[in-house]
C-alpha cells in the first residue's frame, strides 16, 4: 500500500424539521443556522462544521453531492470510505441514511450511493472490470448479527419484544478479526455478490426489513441496533503509459487491482430511559446502545484531542464491538464523513448540544486514507507518480511567472464571489423582511380607508342634524361592520321618513288650499240659490207679464180715449201715455234683470261644476293622505320593530360584552398568575442554573490550579488536605446542583407540556370556529375552551405562546448547563475522578473527611426525621382533636334536633287538648 495522506473526518449537521409530536408539545425551534455559514447556534453555544443541512442551512438534497459523492468517487480510486449517521433517538438518522423503508427511503443517502455507483460503473465498464459485494450487519446488545442471512428467522414480533431477526442456534456467531496488516474483517458474515442496482437494492431492502426496531416514546420505529451496510468494490483495470504532451494511451503497462470498502453506518440513537419511556427489554437495549455510543465517544475523544494524540494516549477501540468495527473509519485508513442528525426542538436541547459537541470533537480526528491496491501495482504506481511529478515540475518551470497572476485572479474571483453571495443574502433578507412587513402595511392602509369611510359617514350624519343617533357609541364585542350597517339603515330610514313627511306636508298643503277654495263655495247654498234665482226669475216674469198686461190695458184705454177725443180724455190719454212709457221702461228693466238672473244662473252652474271637481280632488288628496299615513305607520312600525330587535341585540351584545369583559379580566388574572408562577419557577431554575455554571467554571479553574500545582511546587501536607476537602465539597455541590437543575428541568418540561397541550386545544377549537364548525364534543378540554369567546381565546393563545417562549428559553439555558456538566463529568470520568489523590495519606484523609461529612449528614437527616416524626405526632394529635370536636358537634346537633322534636310534640299535645276542650264545650 502507498503512503497515507492526512485527512480530517468531515462533519455535516443535518437538522430535521419539527415533527408532529414536537409540534403537539408546543416545542420551539431553538437551532439557528448562521446565514451563509456552516455554523449552528443554540442559546449561547456556537459550533462550526463542514456543512449544515436543513432548517435555514443548505437544502438536504445537496447533501449527497457535497458530502457523499466525493467518497463514492474515491472508491473508484481505491479509497475506503465511511458515512456515519449519529444523533439522539428520533433525530432522523434512518431517514437520512435511507435504511428505514419509510418516508425518507428514496431520498436517503444509501439509495443515492447505489445509483451513483452503478452509473459510474456503466461509464467505466469498457476499460475496467468490476466486482461488487455487499454485507449488512447489525450490532444488537453487543452481538453482531447478519441481516442478509436468509437462514435466520424472518421478520416477526419476536418473543423478546422487538421486531427483527433472531440468530439461528447452531450457526456460528460473527467474529471481528484483525488481519496481519491491521485490517478489520468480519468472519462469518455473508458477502453477497451483486452485479445490478436491483440486486443491491434487494439486499438493502432485505436487511432493512430484518433490522431490529421497536417503539419508544420518542420514535415509534426506533432502531435498536447499530447497522452497517458495506459495499466492497473491486476493480481490475489495464494500465497504459502516456507520453508528455500526448494524452492518448500508448504503451500497455499491465493491470492494476484496487479494492475499496464503503461503510454506511446508521447508529442507534442515544437515549435517556426517562424520556423514551423504555422499560424491560427496551431499557436493556438502551443501556447497550448508550454503552456502545459512550465507547465511540471515548474513541472520538481520544482521537479528537490533539494533546492526547500527541501524547499517544491509548485509543479504546476494543471497548465495544462498534468501535472495533469502526477502527479503520476513525483515525485509520478511510475517508470518513459523519452526519450529526439533530432535532431543532427546544425540548431536545441537551441531547442536541451533546450531539454537536460529539460531532465537533470528531472533526479533529485525522484519518490516513490510502489507495488500496496490491503491492506490485502499488510500487508501479509510486514510480508513475514520481514520473508525473517530474513532468509537472518541468511544465511548471516552463510557465513560471504566470502562476502568480493566476493566483491573483483566483483571489479576485473568490472575493467577487464572496461579495456576490453577501449581496444575494442581503437581497434575500430584504425580500423576506418585505414579505413580512407588507401585509401589515396593507392592513394598515385598509384600516385607514375604513376609518376615513366611517368618519365620512359620521360627518354626513352630523351635517343632517342626526347627532342624537348613537353613532359614536362603541359596544364591547360589536363588529364595526355591523355598526356601520346599523347606522346606514337608520340613516336610510330617517331620509325616507323625511321624504314621506315632505310628501305628506305637500298633500296637506294641497288639501288646505283646496279646502279653502272649497270654502268659497261652501258658504252658498246652491239649491236655495237656484230656487231663489228661479223664484226671482218667475217673479220678474210675472211682474213683466203684469206690467205687459197693464201696458196692454192702458194701450186699449188710450185707443178708446183717442176715439172719444174730448179734453178730459186727452188729459187722461196723456197720463196713460206717460204711464205706458214708464211701464215700457219698467218692462225693459225687468227684461234686463231677467237676463242678468239667467246669466247668474249659468255662472252658478259653472261654479257648481268647479266645486264638484274640487270636491273630487279633495277626496282624492284625502285618500292619498290616508294611504301615505298608513304607509308611514307601517314603516314606522317596521322600523320600531327593527329598532327594538336591534336594541335587544345590542343589549345582548352589551351583556355578552360584559361577560367577555368579565371573562377577559378573569383570563388576564389567570394569565398574570400563571405567568408569575412560571417566572418564579424560571427564576428559581435560572438561579440553580447560574450557580451550576459558576461551580462548573470554578471547577475548570480549580482543575487548572491543580495542574499548575502539580507541575510546579507540591503543596504542603495541610494545605493539600484542605484543598482536597474543598475539591470534594465542590464536587458534591456540583452533583447536588446538577440534580437540582435536572429536577427543575423535568418540572419545567411538565409545565411546558401542560401549556402546550392547552395551546394545541385552543388552536384546534379556534380553527374549528374559523371554519364555522363546532369542535368535537367530549374531547378532553374542548368543551371548556369552546365556551370561551373568540377574543378570550385569542388572548389566551397569545399569553400561552408568550409563556411557552419563556419556558423554552429556560429549558434551553438549563439544558445547556446540564450538557456542559455531563460533558465535564464524562471528561472527568475518563481521567479518573480520584487522580487528585497522590498518596495513601491523601486518600485516608479524604476518606476520613468523607466519613465525617457522611456522619454529619446522617445525623442531620436523623434530626430532621425526628422533627418530622414529632410533627407527625402533633399532626396526629391535632387530627384526633379535630375528630373529637367533630363528634361532639354531631352530638350537639343530634341533641338539638331531639329537643326540637320534643318541643314540637309538646306543642301539638297542647293544641290537641285545646281542640278537645273546644269540642267538649260545643257538645256540652
Ligand atoms: N429530514 C426529515 N424531514 C422530515 N421528517 C424527518 C426527517 N428526518 C426524520 N424525520 C422523521 O422523524 C422521525 C424519526 O426519524 P428516524 O426514525 O429517522 O430517527 P432515528 O434518528 O433513526 O431514530 P432512532 O435512533 O430511534 O432509530 C420519523 O418519523 C421521520 O420520518
TrEMBL record:
Family recorded in the similarity comment: Belongs to the TRAFAC class myosin-kinesin ATPase superfamily. Kinesin family. KIN-4 subfamily.
Start and end residues of each Kinesin motor domain: 8-365
Positions of ATP binding: 87-94
Subunit-structure text: Homodimer.
Coiled coil: 497-638, 868-895
One Pfam match: KIF21A_4th
Region annotated Disordered, chain positions: 700-723
Provenance organism: Liquidambar formosana
Top-rank taxon, per record: Eukaryota
GO CC list: cortical microtubule; microtubule associated complex
Protein name from the UniProt record: Kinesin-like protein
Amino acid composition bias (Polar residues), ranges on this chain: 704-722
Membrane spanning stretches: none
A Gene Ontology BP annotation from the UniProt entry: microtubule-based movement
GO molecular function: ATP binding; microtubule binding; microtubule motor activity
Keywords: ATP-binding, Cell wall biogenesis/degradation, Coiled coil, Microtubule, Motor protein, Nucleotide-binding
